[in-house]
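Changelog-adjacent note: as of this version, every example in the card shows the full chain rather than a window. The one below runs 437 residues end to end.
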Amino acid sequence: MTEPEREPTAGGLSRRRLFGTAGAGAALLGAGVAAGVVGDRALHDHGAATGSAVPAVERRYPFHDGHQAGIATPVQDRLHFAAFDVTTDDRPALIDLLRRWTAAAARLTQGLGAGELGPTSGPYDAPPDDTGEAIGLPPAGLTLTFGFGPSLFRDDQGRDRFGLAGRQPAALRRLPHFPADKLDPARSDGDLCVQACADDPQVAVHAIRNLARIAFGTASVRWSELGFGRTSSTSTGQQTPRNLFGFKDGTANLKAEEPGLLDDHVWVPAGADPRAEWLAGGTYLVARRISMAVEPWDRTSLREQEALIGRTKAAGAPLSGGSEFSQPDFRLAGRGGEPLIAADAHVRLAHPDANDGVRMLRRGFNFVDGTTGLGRLDAGLFFIAFVRDPRTHYIPMQTRLSATDGLMEYLQHTGSGLWAVPPGIAEGSFVGEALFS
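Full-length structure tokens:
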């Protein structure tokens, strides 16, 4: 797991130093009181996960590393995810965008402005090189994770847009249409994706806004999603959170403290695909926007809710007994001979025992996007998972869940996407540089 670093003490462009220590402290206090930016859970979980007394909003993670941050990093509490369409066919322009994104991301994750001049400096008759809404805000543990979609390599007509088709990974294909999917094309796919995670929503939004500004003329936002309240833990120091159904989510998630399991299930090994050695040390990002029928769920008995999940609502323990982290016993039957964990229970169908032992690293978030035309909450789970190979670690399991999971009565998948996430970026390089070399 990448250890966090403290904010730099040198340089004049730190967001906190723009107003001085006292002013930044006041801004932070105001943001926390007015917007509820960081709750006690985030402060406690991130301190425990890193062994650090630094408050979560003051934390920053290195941008340059062997793996991109925002994968095995302890999950922050807020998300702004954006998918982009590249609007040019010019390969040098695409490379230039990735260079500029890399430079900006390296600055933003350390609590600096997106550009060298900052939001209040530079030529007075020119736009600033940072939008300014994060002035006075601390780094808030911001991570930025970049991915390349299948359409970056070939368009819908199979055309090689940037001379990259010969290096497209075999596993990087548009996800299939699973049973019961009701996908909105306007919320699916994209040439590029950026996942911004932080413990302050404005810091995450600021990052995506500035990357979109930098991309003007080369790429544009296709769709985006705001998330709050993480629905998984990626560190043993984090408590298991709850989703909008009120159940603990991600109990059996992979953790950063399990490097062997990450190698087996998350990181793409060298030699996995001779055409795509540039992806070695990277991973695949699966995103699914899952609408949850919260009103019908709220009228469902506790007995049925627990039967559909396969765990108790209070402690998150499997219905076969024990505590939250006890292994489910799928053979154990009740008085009538029926298994205590039903055949269509979510925990049974999603368990590694039912999926050839494969696992995934989840980083999902809750979302609420107002109301639907029927006056119901447009709410649910923005599912994000990182896997070594979607053909083995995601598609078979999702096919089974979509067809047989009893929980599907209350779920509808409305958005979908798959991206190849390159390995970490070395200093002096740019994201995905090996793909273009």
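Structural remarks: Confidence is low (pLDDT under 50) at residues 1-14, 16-51.
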